[in-house]
Amino acid sequence: MFKIAQIACKLTQNHRIFYPIVQKTVLKQFILQRVRLENLRSPFNSKPKLLKINWNPLVSFKVTFALSILTWLGFNKADEEKDSELIMTLKRAVLCTQREQFETAEQMLHLALRIAQQQQDYQGILYCYDLMANLAFNTYDLDKAEKLFVNVLQLLLGDGTSEDDLKVIHISLKLARICQLKANIERADLGYRWCLEKIEHQRKVNEDSEILYGVINDWYAQYLLDVGDLPKALVHLNEAYKVCTETQGLKNEKSMLLLNDLGITSFRAEDYEAAEKYLREALALGNQLEDKTHLGVIHANLGLILLQKGVINEAEKLCNTGRKLGSIYVFTSPNS
């Protein structure tokens, strides 16, 4: 059985970024770099390369599921409503993170940690470490994120929290992700499978566990894509999509992103009919959403599939639309 200590304490140090966890400012640089790399590829490649939509896994479905940000690690509603120095500092840190003011957020979290330590507030210390870990994870500082997540796990387990607790599973999932991003494939695989095993028997207990079950399937599918296991990736992507639609409804961005992933995976498996079906569904859904940020990528992906099938005119229209949308929502976004 997978042991938390294995994934927490024995990670390799080489970095290979597969599935970018980036904010919009970093995403812009990443896309430009990928475009340059793709332009260097041979123009005689027989199969076009579809684009993976980059999204932040820390906000997949819900950051802390259905829970208040201050109740996830032990704060209650009364604590959240207090205007104590610690609570207010934590709230400011969260607000800075949401505004992508990461340096200020980190400074506020260090201040909050000192306050919590001075007050000997266990829950406050725990929550500070968790927010620090997520901030490091969110900004790609994987070594720092790993150490902080280990600290959170040690505090939780040392306080008697069970390995079956959703908090432990959630943090272990992030550590598995770090293993994947560091190209520690064996430990990443062990970590994902351990998380699936732990959540399986309690997935129907409440909405929180059901959503976490969906997130684990989604992340495991991305890992399986990374190692080239397309059949299993499709199974877990379909499971994630099923959970997403059951818990979040059909009309939401995450459902659209999962449909795009299903289309990409089907394309890589050379099932072009399924790929077209998923991407047309993603496109129809995206047209109904207010946020059109990712719609250009879906247009381009569907266009490339139709190009592969020889439907030239429609493929050209979709790719041109994708290019126009991409220039609007990626390169000139006021938040980018």
From TrEMBL:
Family: Belongs to the TTC19 family.
GO cellular component: mitochondrion
Family matches, as InterPro entries: TPR-like_helical_dom_sf, TPR_rpt, TTC19
Keyword Mitochondrion: yes
SUPFAM superfamilies named in the record: TPR-like
Native organism: Hypothenemus hampei (Coffee berry borer)
Chief location of this protein within or outside the cell: mitochondrion
Subcellular location: Mitochondrion
Keywords: Mitochondrion, Repeat, TPR repeat, Transit peptide
The keyword DNA damage is assigned to this record: no
The name this protein goes by in its record: Tetratricopeptide repeat protein 19 homolog, mitochondrial
